[in-house]
Amino acid sequence: MTTTTSQHREFGLWRSTSLVVGNIVGSGIFLLPASLGIYGAVGLFGWMVTSVGSICLALIFARLSAHFPKIGGPYAYSKEAFGDFVGFQMAWSYWVGTWASNAAIATAFVSYMSVFWPSLATNATHAFALAFCSVWFFTGLNIWSVKSTGIAQVVIVVLKIVPLIVIGLFGSFYVNFAHFSPVNPSGLPWFTALSSAAALTLYAFLGLESATVPAESVVDPKITIPRATVIGTVLSAVIYVWTTIVLLGVLPPQQLAKSAAPFAEAAGLLFGPWASSGVAICAAIAAFGTLNGWILIQGQMPLAAAQDGLFPKAFAKLSKRGTPVFGLLASSILMTGMLILNYQASLVEQFTAIVTFTTFSMLIPYLYSAMADLVFLVTKADYVSKAHLARSVIVATIGLAYTVLIVIGCGQKAVFLGMLCMFAGFPIYIFMRYSPSSCSSSRLNESAKLRSATHIDSLE
User: Fold this and answer.
1) Dihedral pair phi/psi, residue 274, rounded to 5°
2) At how many degrees (to 10) do helices 13-24 and 221-250 cross?
3) What is the crossing angle of helices 386-409 and 190-205, to 10°?
4) Helical packing angle, 84-113 and 426-434, nearest 10°
5) Contact present, 20 and 232 (Cβ < 8 Å)
């Protein structure tokens, strides 16, 4: 029997944490402050509400991953708690949300690069070509090996986080508190403004569960995954709230709401015109790095479902380097198709159209995971100690309530499109569940896991 030891695993604490931070702190931090500008200081409260909710979700994922350190993360927890059908719904919804979000991230990367290559904003062919190349570059990197993805993620996270910290540090001395009044310049009722702001900010936190997905590539997953998830989410929350305060303090709300590149404008005011280009480069790096991490995830989720016989068995096949080639290729082909469908739209219109249902699709895994956590708290005596039971129930309840609130805040259109995408996967489940030619879950699971343990590149 082959045992998967640490020498077969590529992600330690720092790589796992960088995967979480890298997948959370992506294009959202560079785009959302402008979207939140119309809400003024209420936008800060939106960040705070989402930060608390996201930290609760991170604690939920930490607890779940400690007990179920399985590949697939949220999928594995939902299947364990509610069975195959719910597990399939979650895996399908997460997978759709992942490659759709990747198309949006690729579009955001092209948008940032238009600062240096202006024709990207006006020439659809140039824009598509760059988005296409970025998608398939990282697809190739992930197919090459998990190890190269982990190393690239650490480097890219450092490159994009350091400039944000610099702007936050220096900008703190130039905050004009008059910009925080009135607190709610939108004119909307407080609850409406707050829920709208919170719904917007959640998109920036998507990815907090990233370390739980490639569980079989993580060193000492029962310890590493919980720590990486919580540390990564808390660090991201601090960066988000801090930099938003600085931006709102440096740029008036009216100017912030109309800015296409708020960080670049703020950097220009703080350091001079040269800094605007530097921040634009950082924004491109942020999107580029986020695309790297999310393409890794888009191959791992269908791999986990296929190992259980819920996705076509082609998704469970691993290369000699231990990478799910078919899942990566299929996801990137669908992503390319989405880019083609939006080929003639402007970059902003492309980004908006693709992101419309992404948040809802990604909320389903969070909702199911929070419910699974509550189920385990009630049904498994050894899940948590009695001393921690009450606190754990409170955290799980807050996480569940938060996800329900954000689902409501997504709006009818996003929920409608998200449900359509979910229903589209039901025929696949029926085929996989009841087709006589379908492989048994246990045989496929054991075979795929054995290959994963044997062939993933050695860190040594």
Assistant:
1) -60, -30
2) 40
3) 110
4) 140
5) yes
CB burial class (10 A; 0-12, 13-18, 19+) of residue 24?
buried
For residue 97 the two structure tokens come to: 């949300």
Rounded CA gap, 395 and 390, in Å? 9
CA distance 93 to 419: 9
Give which of 227, 253, 335, 354 is closest to 291, Cα–Cα.
335
> Tokens 């910009």, residue?
179
Structure-token pair, residue 114:
């238009």
| Residue 13, burial from CB neighbour count under 10 angstroms (0-12, 13-18, 19+) | middle
CATH number at 6-455: 1.20.1740.10
Q: Give the C-alpha separation, 289 to 152, whole Å.
A: 8
Model confidence pLDDT, tens digit, residues 414-452: 788 788 888 888 888 888 877 765 544 444 444 444 444
Cβ neighbour number for residue 52 with a 10 Å cutoff: 15
Query: Which amino acid is present at 92?
Result: W
Element (H, E) at 236: helix 221-250
Report yes or no: 157 and 23 within 8 Å, Cβ to Cβ.
Answer: no
- State the Cα–Cα distance between residues 254 and 264, nearest whole angstrom: 16
Dump pLDDT digits (tens) for 295-335. Answer: 877 887 788 788 888 888 888 888 877 788 898 898 899 88
Please state, as a whole number, how many other Cβ atoms lie within 10 Å of the Cβ of residue 405.
15
Query: 3-class DSSP state for residue 206?
Result: coil
Q: For the chain, which residues make up each domain, given as ranges?
A: 6-455
